[in-house]
Specification:
Layout lengths: L10 H12 L5 H5 L5 H26 L6 H9 L1 H30 L11 H20 L6 H28 L10 H4 L6 H12 L4 H4 L9 H30 L10 H12 L6 H35 L14 H14 L9 H33 L16 H22 L12 H40 L8
Length: 484
């Protein structure tokens, strides 16, 4: 999607772009682990995070004339240093996100060979690194996914498989086959005093990350004041419907202790196809999922890097990381990103189970991204009060309904959702093997500190460069003595 310029985007196309950015079939197994209560958490997460993030991103991107993105939004409110921290958090979270999405592709591909390979750490790491470097190489060549191709990938590799798994789930229940969970009044609402239920929120929130990336298209929309809310409504309904119903289909068919976070989707399809004598469809479905996922990953590899490049051009990173190749691609940043992801992938060797590694990386990614969203919500409030948008209110492209009261309600809901996710992320789930609690928390906290520490180093780097420049000018500029 990134890099594509469309003269006019219809409401449907905009809704598809938003859906393709946020919706993901790989998150379904993690959601299915929590049974019937996942309905409550999906709706709750939409109210306190998905919708507020979309509305705030839409207003900021629609009413600031300079280049959009989290770096420029936060810089307009709090200056360069805080903006660098925000864009760093947006980028560094993908370092933990990439291994999880690549492991989904690798786990899916095992159905061409042997599904048991999904639990083989050596295979998983080898496959992840192969996919990572292949897609990095594609981006270095300057190949971008066009809007039409992205729409095809979303329909073929995302919407179609989700629709199929929902249809098979409905058929499963209609035929009276055994189900693993039951939707009753008592089971739909979680026990809110049970910490295990709140830990589920991390998995749900992860499914909604990235909404702000799609709002970059708002300037190409005719009458965005009406088109964007409509597209937002369509995409939110589509995202919630596909995620909730698809997750329930997995929870209905697979026992909780058998759900695998890496290849749980394929487990479910395999169970369905065997029951209906449709096993011959497995290779076709596998190919569809791989194509759909690979198509969505390409843009995610380059987009956060370009966001970091905005800050790098302000001298927060060494000059060699700011270099772009002949195709305008920040090649050194891309290669550095791939190297860093390679090391992060080794975490699969440090956890006692694949599920444990997958959950740890997902939780770390979510925490880092949530910190960025906290900064975004606060910046939006600050800009509404302390800064005036460059355009008069009557010509603004999109504004959150309700004036300042609407902005406060939206931002406070978003901050509330972020804070809950940040708190529960520190607690290990009881139904996933992550080893001793102290081991999980030590790796979790170490990961957060390790990933945020480079920001301080970047501050020192820039300040020292300024000091060196001043010293160099002072000591090398000849003193001119005027003659009497």
């Amino acid at each position: 999607m990134s890099g594509t310029t469309l003269a006019r985007i219809s409401t449907f196309t905009l809704a598809m772009l938003i859906t393709g950015t946020v919706d993901s079939i790989r998150n379904l197994p993690a959601s299915a682990l929590f049974g019937s209560t996942l309905i409550f958490f999906f709706v709750f997460s939409a109210v306190v995070f998905l919708i507020p993030a979309a509305l705030v991103s839409a207003e900021l991107s629609a009413n600031m004339p300079q280049q959009g993105g989290i770096y420029y939004w936060v810089r307009a409110a709090f200056g360069e240093k805080v903006a660098f921290l925000a864009v760093w958090l947006q980028w560094i979270n993908t370092i933990f996100w990439f291994p999880t999405i690549f492991s989904f592709v690798a786990g899916t591909a095992t159905y061409f060979i042997s599904p048991e390979l999904a639990q083989n750490k050596v295979y998983l790491i080898s496959a992840i690194l192969t996919i990572l470097w292949f897609l990095t190489w594609i981006n270095l060549k300057g190949i971008h996914v066009a809007a039409r191709f992205t729409s095809i990938c979303t329909l073929v590799g995302l919407i179609a498989p989700m629709g199929l798994i929902i249809l098979l789930g409905v058929s499963w229940i209609s035929l009276g086959k055994p189900i693993q969970i039951h939707l009753t009044a008592s089971s739909l609402l979680p026990h809110l005093n049970d910490s295990e239920n709140w830990i589920a929120l991390t998995a749900i929130m992860t499914a909604f990350l990235g909404m702000e990336l799609a709002t970059s298209h708002i300037r190409e929309v005719r009458n965005p004041q009406k088109a964007f809310p409509r597209a937002l409504l369509v995409s939110v309904i589509l995202i919630l419907a596909t995620m909730i119903l698809s997750s329930l289909a997995i929870a209905f068919v697979l026992p909780q202790h058998e759900i695998n976070l890496v290849n749980g989707v394929m487990q479910t399809f395999s169970t369905f196809f065997k029951a209906y004598n449709l096993s011959w469809l497995m290779p076709v479905l596998t190919f569809m999922l791989i194509i759909g996922t690979m198509g969505s990953i390409i843009g995610w590899i380059i987009s956060p890097v370009k966001g970091l490049l905005q800050a790098a051009q302000q001298d927060y990173l060494p000059a060699f990381l700011r270099r772009e190749n002949s195709r305008g691609v920040p090649q050194n940043l891309l290669i550095a990103q791939a190297i860093l992801v390679t090391f992060v992938c080794l975490s699969f060797l440090l956890m006692p189970s694949i599920n444990g590694s997958y959950w740890l990386l997902t939780a770390l990614s979510t925490q880092l991204y949530m910190l960025m969203y906290v900064m975004m919500f606060i910046a939006a409030l600050y800009l509404r009060y302390k800064k005036s948008y460059p355009t008069p209110s009557e010509t603004r492209n999109f504004m959150i309904p309700g004036g300042k009261l609407g902005m406060w309600a939206t931002c406070l809901l978003g901050l509330f959702g972020c804070c809950i996710t940040l708190i529960v992320g520190f607690f290990p789930p009881g139904n996933i093997d992550v080893g001793p609690a102290w081991h999980y928390e030590m790796m979790f906290i170490s990961g957060l500190v390790l990933m945020i520490t480079p920001v301080s180093i970047a501050y020192i780097y820039k300040d020292r460069e300024k000091l060196f420049s001043k010293w160099f000018v002072t000591t090398t500029t000849p003193t001119i003595v005027e003659e009497e």
